[in-house]
Amino acid sequence: MADFALSEKSTDSGCTVLGLVGELDLAGAATMRAAGLAALGQPDCTTLVLDATALTFVDSTGIGSWVELRNHANEHDQRLVLRGVSENLIRVLTIAGLVSLFNIDAPDGPA
Q1: All structural domains of the chain
Q2: Which of these, 22, 24, 40, 83, has the minimum number of CB atoms within 10 Å of its CB?
């Protein structure tokens, strides 16, 4: 089982990118959620990008955390963007009726 890790990068344009690596499951979801909420809590953060390019697995806890971060962002007039989401994960989000909740960009598309 691959551990979960994340990196954080802020830009001058009010965008924070969290790079998600490995398996986002119950063990990593709390870490990701805390980092996302901290980023969204910064006064200059207008957009939080979750870069899923290096994720190898996401369970329902991870997806639930994305929904929580998206709801928090919406409540504070911010955006949450998913980047680098695999076709399989898009299919899961579609089946669950969640795909329309998210702004989904290509791996190297604009935030």
Answers
A1: 5-105 (3.30.750.24)
A2: 22
